[in-house]
Amino acid sequence: MRRSIFSLVLLTATVSACASEPEVVPAQAIRPPPKHRSGSARAAPRVGGDEAMAIKMSVGYLDERAVDSAIEPHERAMAACFARAGKARTYLSGQIVMRFVVAASGEVSDVQVIRNDLGSYPVENCLVLQGKQIVFPVPEGRSATDFEYSMSFTSTGERSVVPWSAREMAPYLYAISTELADCGQLAPSDVDVVAYVEPGGAIGSVGFASQSTLDPTAAVCAVALMSRIRIDDAHTAHSGVVLRATFPMALAFEPPLADSHKLKHARRH
Question: Which stretches of 94-215 are DSSP H helices?
C-alpha cells in the first residue's frame, strides 16, 4: 500500500531570535516547498506522488484535508521546537520524518521519528510530544491508521558543517560502550544516530531515528554520555567548522578496526 508524506519546510531567519520562534505561514496543498531564503520563515505542507487528496493505509482512511485541519493549529508549536536545539541552531539543518499512528478514535497513539537528518534529540522529542497532542477525525472504517509527516529546518548559518567518517568516531564511542549499554535499549529496532562535533572536539548535538518507538529515558542517558566525549583529532582544529557523523547505534559496541588490527598483530607475535 502506498503512503503519502506531508512536508513542512521551515526556513529560519539569520538571527537567533527569529530562529527560536519561526513564523508559520500555511501554503496550498501540492505546492512545492519554497526555496531557502535568508531572513524568512515559512511552512509549506504538501503531498507528494499521485496520492494528492488522501492518505490511505492498510485499514483506516484519513482525508488529507482533514489531516491538514487537525495539524494546522499545532504548526506554530511544532515549529517552535527548533528552539530546543539551543546554540546548535547555528549549524543544525535537515529533515525529520515522523510516523503518526492514529487510533480508531482519532487520538494519536504514537509518534515515531523514522528518518532524521537534523540530529537534535531535544527537538525530536519536542515534536513527538507536540504530535501526540493532536486529535484527528475518526478514520473512515473506524480502524487505526498511520501516515508520515516531514519537517525541514535550516540553521542560522553561522557555522559550516562538513561530513565526518563514523569510523573515525568509533573509538570514542566504544570507550563509553559499557555506560551506553547501562542506559538501556533505545528502541526495539535498529537506531540511527546523527552527531555533530563542534570546534574544540565537543559533541554539540545528537539525534536519533528508528522504525520503532524510542525510550526517552534511554535516549536522554545516551545523549548525556555522548556529550561528554571530547574528540582529540586534527580535524576538530578547523576554526568554525562543525563535523557531522551519521552511524548506526550498533557501531558504539563494535571494537574499532584499529584496535582489531593491533590484536591481530599481537597474536602473530
Answer: 121-131, 166-174, 177-182
CA atoms of 28 and 17, how far apart (whole Å)? 27
Backbone angles phi, psi at 83, to 5 degrees: -60, -25
Report the C-alpha gap between 254 and 249 in whole angstroms. 10
Domains along the chain with CATH numbers: 5-153 (no CATH), 160-268 (3.30.1150)
Contact criterion met (CB below 8 Å) for 192 and 248: yes
- What is the 8-class DSSP label of residue 15? S
Which three cell numbers, joined as nine digits, stand for 210?
A: 528508528
**pLDDT digits 0-9 by tens, 17-53:** 333 343 333 332 222 333 322 222 223 333 333 344 3
Q: Are strands 241-248 and 46-47 parallel, antiparallel or unpaired?
A: unpaired
Bridge partners, residue 163, by sequence:
244
- What residues form DSSP beta bridges with 149? 6, 98
HSE-CB at 143 with a 13 A cutoff on CA atoms is 7
